[in-house]
Write a structure and sequence with these properties.
alpha+beta; eight-stranded antiparallel sheet; 10 strands; DUF402 domain-containing protein; DUF402
């Protein structure tokens, strides 16, 4: 299992970044929200989405991530430099938490649900989860739980009842305002 951090400190693609986070405790969400501004990248990140190339990281892009308390998934909304969503990316996780330094993290179960369109999700990295099980990096229970959570996320997205994308849109303006000025 891989532990990953919201501020992505070891991502060599990013040459210049800014980061902000906050705790949210209201009727719609309990957990952490983080925003990573990709001010300058070495090269754009282009992934395949539905058989087509999709740019998800480039200069000026921002990644807003939600960490629900007790959640079994996180959501990263990848916004371009015009603040248009490029991709919704759900990491299926064993747990979310906060480091001793106060940075949200997730223990990644390899399996992911992605969508360029909220209502058309698809599953990726099942082969990584299969490999992790074969290598003893996850238990059989983790493996089954990851697949069950991924199916639930996909079903909720297809039905239009997954609440996190709307929360990302709501939080974006506030999180952009929390970013430190460039160069600070």
């Amino acid at each position: 299992m891989k532990r990953k951090f919201a501020d992505r400190p070891f991502w060599p693609r990013i040459e210049s970044r800014r980061y902000a986070q906050k705790r949210v405790d209201d009727e719609s969400f309990r957990g952490y929200t983080s925003l990573l501004a990709l001010d300058r990248v070495r090269e754009p990140l282009v992934v395949e989405a539905g058989g087509r190339p999709l740019r998800v990281a480039d200069d000026g892009y921002v990644w807003l991530q939600l960490f629900p308390d007790g959640g079994k998934h996180t959501l990263t909304a990848m916004f371009d430099d015009r603040r248009t969503v490029r991709q919704w990316y759900f990491d299926i996780v064993k747990r979310v938490g906060v480091s001793a330094e106060g940075i949200p993290y997730w223990d990644d179960l390899y399996l992911d649900v992605v969508a360029a369109n909220e209502r058309e999700p698809y599953l990726i990295d099942a082969d990584e989860l299969d490999d992790a099980l074969a290598r003893g990096l996850v238990t059989g229970a983790d493996y089954r739980a990851a697949h069950m959570e991924a199916e639930r996320v996909m079903s909720d997205l297809a039905a239009g009842v997954q609440p996190l994308p709307a929360l990302c849109r709501r939080e974006l303006g506030d999180m952009l305002a929390r970013l430190p000025e460039k160069g600070n």
